[in-house]
Write a structure and sequence with these properties.
Elements (H helix, E strand, L loop, with lengths): L5 E12 L2 E12 L3 E5 L6 H9 L4 E10 L2 E2 L5 H6 L2 E4 L6 E5 H13 L5 H14 L10 E2 L5 H15 L3 E5 L7 H17 L4 E6 L12 E6 L2 E6 L1 H10 L2 H4 L1 H4 L3
Parallel strand pairs: 3-10, 3-11, 6-9, 9-10
Antiparallel strand pairs: 1-2, 1-4, 4-5, 7-8, 11-12
Helix pairs in contact: 3-5, 5-6
Length: 257
């Protein structure tokens, strides 16, 4: 069996926002085709990690490194990271009144590839993606997230992911605020794209294991106070659901906090 290539490698990562240190030595390796889940209590640094990887300018890396596809990710701007195949699904997607989903996706795809995409080719790709994700074609005519339910906003994020075809996807609390039907729809979309793109790496950030009932992770990690303190398989997520995060705080002493 061919060994999977390392896609994202985070080593001893420290990061701060407005002078306050949030990440305190994160180590994480994700290989091509792997699906990882990152869990932890509020304020543990999960979303901060996502924003640092994506290149949010408010977050300063004070120590450590991030390699993506063997390259120094921290030397790349936000646009360069997207063109290299990195995708972030936001916890709270923004509304863009007056801009349809189709218009937004065509501009995003052109910006990603650096090429002008013909209208016919674009709509062929969009129709194909919507069929795969079981999305009504009229959805593309709506303004981006304007008046959307929580489930519709997250479905739009998954549609963006399908159109941009990333090599690595960060899903920041994509299950937040979803009822069970919306959760299943989003999970089905992620599973479809992961099956279609075998090399796609995925990091799902979540508080709860319920989305992991529908998306099967290869690895589960627990973050507490800015560090990953435990790693395991899906059984770890089930344990956390039963016992809560207090049981993991003792791991900080063992890891040298």
């Amino acid at each position: 069996m061919t060994e999977k290539k390392e896609l994202l490698v985070v080593e001893d990562l420290h990061a701060a926002v407005e002078g306050e240190e949030i990440l305190r030595g994160v180590n994480l390796t994700i290989r091509e085709g792997e699906l990882h889940a990152l869990m932890g209590p509020n304020g543990s640094g999960k979303s901060t990690l996502a924003k640092v990887v994506a290149g949010h300018p408010a977050y300063a890396v004070t120590r450590g490194s991030i390699r993506y596809g063997g390259e120094n990710l921290l030397e790349m701007g936000v646009d360069a990271r997207a063109r290299k195949g990195l995708f972030l699904a936001f916890q709270y997607p923004s509304e863009i009144p007056g801009v349809t989903i189709a218009q937004f996706l065509r501009h995003a795809k052109s910006a990603q590839t650096g090429e002008d995409i013909s209208v016919l080719d674009f709509y062929d790709d969009l129709k194909d993606a919507m069929n795969k994700l079981d999305v009504d074609e009229k959805f593309a005519e709506r303004f981006v997230n304007a008046g959307f339910s929580g489930g519709e906003k997250k479905r739009n994020e998954i549609l963006q992911m399908a159109m941009l075809k990333p090599d690595f996807a960060l899903l920041d609390e994509t299950d937040s605020g979803l009822d069970i039907d919306a959760l299943k729809i989003v999970a089905d979309g992620v599973n479809t794209l992961h099956r279609e793109r075998e090399r796609l790496g995925v990091l799902i950030i979540t508080h709860y294991q319920r989305i992991l009932n529908y998306i099967q992770p290869d690895f589960v990690h627990v973050m507490v106070e800015g560090r990953i303190v435990r790693s395991g398989d899906r059984e770890l997520a089930i344990e956390l659901e039963a016992e809560g995060y207090e049981s993991t705080r003792g791991q900080l002493t063992a890891t040298g906090s």
